[in-house]
Design goal:
This protein is an alpha+beta fold and 249 residues long. Helices cover 39% and strands 22% of the residues. Helix 3 packs parallel to helix 4 and helix 4 crosses helix 6. The longest helix has 22 residues.
Length: 249
């Protein structure tokens, strides 16, 4: 309906307005990561871009690859771009003075760089939904690791409003990544033994802004997982979050 369309456009606009200025090279790197994610699952969408060149020309299409000039400095040498006509353009990155990411409202969550931006039309759980999910997850983890019945998943609920859809979605996503990490660890007998001896609680600290994967830590018998980890909504960094949790054990 027109009302639904208007609400959706308002949310899309608000998400785009949350984005921060970044160097073109940083945005290009993220575009390439999205391309690699697309190659991996054949599902992840990739944004169309327009490169603005130092010559005054522009070229539009989809990034295929970016070559690294010096891995030590992570600087880029050349870019390959597929155009609408399926031509492939090869350019030195040094010629790029700026770029446009088209239909950014569909990709804002992938370019959030730590800010809380929910993917378009993604379902939002309620606080009650999440509490039930945590209880069920704790029961499954307790069984997998032979943990005591006192083992729980919890969150700093006072820090999250019931109508904060971004924070609720973020918490749900990080909860899934944490369960994924524990499931992976359950397959390792040594890790399983360590967790059985060390873990009594998983606490999700609901915070705003940008936090670091390094803030995932084990304090005594509690695994602390901040839910505003870098790109909590992005599959690109989900693996990094899982790895950080596994590294605690």
């Amino acid at each position: 309906t027109q009302s639904t369309w208007g609400t959706r456009r308002k949310m899309d606009r608000e998400n785009v307005f949350k984005l921060s200025a970044k160097p073109p090279a940083t945005i290009l790197q993220r575009v390439l990561e999205l391309k690699r994610a697309q190659n991996a699952d054949n599902k992840s969408p990739q944004p169309r871009v327009t490169l603005m060149l130092s010559t005054g020309h522009t070229v539009s299409g989809w990034v295929i690859d970016i070559s690294e000039n010096d891995p030590r400095t992570n600087s880029y040498a050349h870019i390959a771009l597929s155009t609408d006509d399926l031509d492939v353009v090869y350019l030195p990155v040094s010629m790029i003075s700026g770029l446009i990411v088209h239909a950014m409202y569909n990709f804002a969550h992938n370019f959030a760089f730590g800010k809380q931006i929910r993917p378009p039309r993604a379902p939002v759980p309620t606080r009650l939904d999440l509490k039930k999910k945590m209880k069920n997850s704790a029961t499954l983890a307790s069984s997998a690791f032979n943990l005591p019945k006192s083992f729980t998943f919890d969150a700093t609920w006072d820090s999250i409003a019931a109508d904060n859809s971004e924070a609720l979605y973020c918490l749900d996503t990080v909860l899934d990544a944490t369960v994924e990490a524990l499931q992976h660890l359950a397959a390792d007998e040594l890790a399983k033994d360590v967790i059985a001896r060390k873990l009594d609680k998983v606490m999700f600290t609901v915070v705003g802004g940008t936090t670091s994967i390094d803030q995932v830590k084990l304090e005594r018998d509690t695994l602390i997982v901040p839910t505003a980890n870098v790109e909590p909504f992005s599959s690109l960094t989900r693996g990094a979050l899982v790895a950080a949790i596994e590294a605690c054990f």
